[in-house]
Amino acid sequence: MKNSFSPDTEGNSYRHRHHRWLWLAGLLVLWELIRRISGVNPLLMPPLGDILMELVHGIFKGMLVRRWLLSMALVCGGLAAGTVLAMILVVISSTGRGASSFLSLISSLMHPLPGLALLPLVILWFGTGTPAVLFIIIHAVLWPIFVNLESGVRSLAPAWTGYARILKLGRWETFIRISLPGSFPHLISGIRTGWARSWRAFIAAEMVFGAVGILGGLGWQLFESRVMMDTPALYSALLVVMLTGMAMEEIILARWENRVRRKWGEPGDTGMAAE
Amino acid sequence: MSNRSVYPGPAALEMKDITRRWPGGEPVFSNLYLSIPRGSICCLLGPSGCGKSTLLRCAASLDTMETGETLVSGEAVSTPSPERQLILQDDRQLFPWLNISENILFPVRRSTAGSAEGLLEMVGLADSGSLYPSQLSGGMKQRAVLARSLAAEPEILLLDEPFGALDSEIRKRLHRVLLDIHRKRKLTILLVTHDVNEALILADTIIYMDSSGKLSQPEVNPLGDERNMENPQFFQATMKMRKRYGLLIG
User: Alpha helix (H) ranges present in A113-253?
Assistant: First the structure.
């Protein structure tokens, strides 16, 4: 009998993450080397020190932290709303073949549609404020989570669904007690994909719509830095966008998924979720 | 061979004139009659693919029948219910997101910690309540499934080759667990197997289903209360049964 969850996978995953941070440090060193050797205009490729100074200044004296918090709040709020909506759609989809086929068609049409392609319509419907950005985030999140969750519900072990029938569980009770937890690994995969899509969509939407609220988020920070030709600030904001995306993916979501998969006795996944 | 397998006395489970067809239209079995007395263990013995499992799923009302009806304690039933618990050979019956205690108490709406402990002890898993299914061996999983079925306080246990994938030592241990539970709970058990030895160890009565889906008359276990492989008559009884039904099984 095994008394612990696969320690080898844990070790490999740790080494994998460790290597990624080393590569990142190597890239920063390479940046500085190329800049110094090529003698490129510092406006195009500012010194690493200037970028880091701008980053530290933005964190302690500027508005970077507040803008980061606003961005995270909006994306996480959209992610939560999209997840709940996807769950509702999956329950509707399980009511019958008609509903399932209709929602399958809608998800096939909407899933490949980039949020930015909807921008002209979204501006007409919601204007350019927070509701418009939230709509874009929810659109980015909803379809990958719906597709993954529905696939999870469809691939539930027949013994579980049979047991729900034996216990005479109703539709909602079956969903809450068996289908949802039973498709949890699929749900997390959907959330990973949804997170990546929504983070990209939010940054892009804010650069098109303008600041969300009075302060604006990281997208607005990028836009503002470009207009002011403040390239160290532009690069520092880009660094925050990239590191946030990577940290969320590597530290929170991938670990969460691996932990669930190991608990289930499935091999841990260290790769990115498919889109 | 006939289509009728009838016991005298009150039946806990009766299946009357049942017909089930394969998707192509060929009958799996047709117009079967089966009756299982209350509190007995009945083994349905037969070769692989003869329709035993389908019959069991019909008894649980998980499969629809073209004709006929299922009666539990004389009342017609058409939908599954917790009183008829089905246990399969499937390795994925437990819920992997719940620990063993939570799995066992899944059918119970309001429970106490004590009720899980009692059931865990009954199936010999007293120290395993906090483990997850992925941490258990195949035999331990089947014991946990058995405990979960008992938590629903069923009248009838329907077992579809539940010990088929286990090695012989674990299987022997689980036979003892099942017989012990049957003695304590007075359950009616219909067990499907293709293993003659298993049928002789567990069953009060044995019914044979042939490859065309026909049933034999129920046969009382010739070993009486001495149902174990150490009984000198065991080998003889096995050979007799194989010869009678032309068995190349188990």
Answer: 119-126, 130-154, 158-166, 171-174, 180-182, 184-209, 218-227, 231-247
- State the Cα–Cα distance between residues B117 and B29, nearest whole angstrom: 42
- Chain A residues whose C-beta is within 8 A of a chain B C-beta are 1-3, 5, 157-160, 162-163, 165-168, 177-178, 181-182, 184, 260, 262-265
| Residue numbers in A near B133 (CB within 8 A) | 265
Distance CA A162, CA B160 (A): 14
What is the count of structural domains for chain A?
1
d(CA B200, CA B228): 8
User: What pLDDT, in 10s, does the model give residues B70-80?
Assistant: 999 989 999 99
Asked if residue A114 lies in contact with residue A275, where contact means CB atoms within 8 angstroms, the answer is no
CATH assignment of the domain containing A68? 1.10.3720.10
Closest Cα in chain B, distance from residue A160 (Å): 6
**Cβ–Cβ gap A159/B92 under 8 Å:** yes
Domain hosting A212: range is 47-263
> B179, B104 in Cβ contact below 8 A?
no
Q: Best interface-test mutation with B: which of A2, A166, A169 has the largest number of B CBs within 10 A?
A: A166
Q: Which of A157, A160, A263 sits opposite B134 (nearest CB)?
A: A263
- What is the length of chain A? 275
Chain B residues closer than 8 Å to A184 by CB? 97
Buried b (16+ CB within 10 A) or exposed e, A27-45: eeeebeeebeeeeeeeeeb
- Identify whether A33 is part of a domain: no
pLDDT over 70 (residue B235): yes
Judged against a pLDDT cut of 80, whether residue B246 lies above it is answered with: no
A34: phi then psi, degrees, rounded to nearest 5: -60, -45
* Residue A158, domain member (yes or no): yes
Q: What are the DSSP calls for A132-170, one per residue?
A: HHHHHHHHHHHHHHHHHHHHHHHTS-HHHHHHHHHTT--
Name the CATH superfamily for B1-83+198-250.
P-loop containing nucleotide triphosphate hydrolases (3.40.50.300)
Q: What sign has the CA pseudo-torsion A132, A138, A141, A147?
A: negative
**What pTM does this model have?**
0.81
What mean pLDDT is predicted for residues B183-197? Answer: 90
